[in-house]
Amino acid sequence: MTNLETLKQAFITQVEGVATALVVLKNRKGTQVGICNYGARITHFIVQDHKQNWVDTVLGFNSIKEYLNATELYHGVTAGPFANRIAKGKFTLDDITYQLEQNNGLNNLHSGTKGFHAQVWDVVQRDNTFVQLSISYADGEGGFPGPIAASITFTLTDDDELVMDYKASSKKDTIINLTNHAYFNLNGEGSGTILNHAVKINASSFVEINEACIPTGKFIEVENTAFDFSVLKPIAQDIAQEDAQLLNGSGYDHSFVLNKSVDGLTHAAIAIGDISNLKLEVFTEEPGMQFYTGNFLNAQDKGKAGNYYERRSGFCFETQHHPDSPNHPHFPSVRLRAGELFKSKTVYKISS
């Protein structure tokens, strides 16, 4: 097993004059989680499987240089201020139209090239099992009204739960949508395809998208479709169907409408590795979850084990509000009013 403490030196540099670092979380079981303040990203999530083998379940790299040079920009990041896509990079608040960077064709993706994923966050406080990171975004930065202050606290429990507590506030009314973009492979990063993982998603409908992966505004019932994950099934089972939605997303790249619990956390999803038998469970307070099957991983980035990350070698469970929410009034609101505090919690739990 890699001792993450030995990697700390490899994560020390400066990005635009701000120091980067690797913070290592460890619990009583020996589970390790790596958190880098560049992008407030999860770099490692190393757990024991049923055979007592240590498995790193998250795609990524062992140095900051590799993250800075990677083709895939979003390995493990905290995406914001607005995660996912906004059509034409435009939204309107109180009759004022705001124009964001169009970095994904005509659309905005993950708040543009200078979103939270591309910033060095401040390490506010930490110990062996948690770290709190914070970031400030000036008024107008990235095109967003503000200024926006955001934080995330990662906590590793002795039950191998990685708890993510998000907070944000703004001095002007703005929009907020925060998520984590870890790519998981429960057989181990760099071990090959995730298509034989079994997945269950607690959702009765999903958000229809067009050819640019922008929501049409319509919710589609999952029953009798390729998007029915109401019981565990292999990702491969339906992903190759001749389905217009799968074609638009080049696979699964869709926001599922979670069957929300009345209070507290919703048990959103389960994934089980076909070789490791490791089980990932996701719990969240968010109304949606983007299930993304790594359709655009392109074998350009060599991972921690020395293997290239090929198409569909990792998947994401991104808990969030739906894409393009500011432009669909019937979607759950992403408006953050001046002086109010946004709070949201998501948990990734891995067990053998």
TrEMBL record:
GO MF annotations in UniProt: aldose 1-epimerase activity; carbohydrate binding
InterPro entries, per database record: Ald1_epimerase_CS, Aldose_1-epimerase, Aldose_1/G6P_1-epimerase, Gal_mutarotase_sf_dom, Galactose_mutarotase-like, GH-type_carb-bd
A matching Pfam family: Aldose_epim
CC cofactor: Ca(2+)
Keyword annotations: Calcium, Carbohydrate metabolism, Isomerase
GO BP annotations, alphabetical order: galactose catabolic process via UDP-galactose, Leloir pathway; glucose metabolic process
Pathway given in the UniProt record: Carbohydrate metabolism; hexose metabolism
Active site: 181 (proton donor), 318 (proton acceptor)
Residues that span the membrane, as ranges: none
Catalytic activity, EC: 5.1.3.3
Family: Belongs to the aldose epimerase family.
Name of the protein in question: Aldose 1-epimerase
Provenance organism: Pedobacter aquae
